[in-house]
Design a protein that fits this description.
alpha/beta; three-stranded antiparallel sheet; three-stranded parallel sheet; 5 helices
């Protein structure tokens, strides 16, 4: 029951909702949140507007003095699109959702084929000798 306040702070709520109308009702109850449905699943991510993977990466990068152009990001779903578009290098895995594949600068093998590890081994061979 999301009409009752939570007992603890939460930065994200990820409910399983089999009826998309339930997601719309939740969205209407919490206008400060954005909701994104995970591709092909009944799971939704509700977070405060503007809070996503890219904003988290920006915060960490700023803290450590890393420029966005020096960030490599990997993704496979619509929740990764903004991150892949804004990182210096956005890499989509082969089984990525179409918008995610389009947001990326390049692609690697699928998750099931250890695509990220293979990409890193090719891109940074001196670290994997």
């Amino acid at each position: 029951d999301f009409t009752v306040p939570l007992h603890a702070p939460a930065y994200k709520i990820t409910p399983k909702l089999t009826d998309p109308a339930d997601a719309e009702r939740l969205r209407a109850l919490h206008p400060a949140c954005e909701a994104v449905r995970f591709t092909g699943e009944d799971w939704y991510r509700f977070v405060a507007k503007g809070c996503g993977k890219w904003s988290a990466l920006q915060t960490l990068a700023e803290y450590f003095g890393i420029l966005p152009a020096d960030i490599a990001a990997f993704g496979d779903d619509v929740l990764d699109d903004e991150m892949l578009q804004n990182a210096g290098l956005g890499v989509a895995v082969a089984n990525a959702f179409p918008s995610t594949a389009a947001a990326a600068d390049c692609h690697c093998e699928s998750n099931d084929e250890d695509g990220v590890a293979r990409f890193l081994r090719r891109a940074l061979p001196k670290y994997f000798a």
